[in-house]
Amino acid sequence: IDEVGDLNYDILEPVLMRASPQTLIHIEDLNPGLMVGPTNTSKLWEKHCNRDFRNKARNEEDMESWREMYERCTQEREEKLAKLKGKMKEKEVAVKRDARK
Q1: How many CB atoms lie within 10 A of CB 38?
Q2: Which of 17, 72, 76, 85 is most buried, taking the most CB atoms under 10 A from its CB?
Q3: In angstroms, rounded to a whole number, what is the distance separating the alpha carbons of residues 76 and 95?
Q4: pTM for the whole thing?
Q5: Whole-number pLDDT of residue 94
Q6: What would the DSSP string read from start to end of the chain?
Q7: Distance between CA atoms of residues 26 and 16, nearest Å
Q8: Are 79 and 59 in contact (CB under 8 A)?
Q9: Which whole-number Å values give the CA distances from 9 to 6, 16, 22, 27, 73, in the listed order?
Q10: Which of 17, 47, 41 has its CA nearest to residue 29?
Q11: What is the pLDDT along the chain (101 residues), one digit of tens a residue?
């Protein structure tokens, strides 16, 4: 799905409910009107956040939206994974170095 034009949100909602977070971001980026107004995608993002990041909290002081929280938590998770990979690589190199001695 790309641009949806003036299609009513009620018609789109069943499709959006089944969309992955990446797909939902793509659709919203092309249709920013889906993120505002009385019928918007915030409940869908809340569902994704509660499923994927249930131990995290929204930064309500900064008025963080559910989508922003999802993007922040995803970034934090990717950074943590990259650090762990780096540490594992360092240990692997150290083990190989020690094995040569």
Answers
A1: 5
A2: 72
A3: 29
A4: 0.81
A5: 87
A6: ----TT--HHHHHHHHHTS-HHHHHHHHHH-GGGGSSSS-SHHHHHHHHHHH-TT----GGGT--HHHHHHHHHHHHHHHHHHHHHHHHHHHHHHHHHHH-
A7: 11
A8: no
A9: 9, 9, 19, 13, 27
A10: 41
A11: 788 888 888 889 999 999 999 999 999 999 888 888 777 899 999 999 999 999 999 988 889 999 999 999 999 999 999 999 999 988 888 888 888 86
Q: Of 28, 26, 64, 27, which Cα lies nearest the Cα of 46? A: 64
**Class of residue 45 by CB neighbours under 10 A (exposed 0-12, middle 13-18, buried 19+):** buried
Residue type at 12 in one-letter notation: L
22 and 42 in contact (C-beta within 8 Å)?
Answer: no
Based on C-alpha coordinates, what's the Rg of the chain? 20
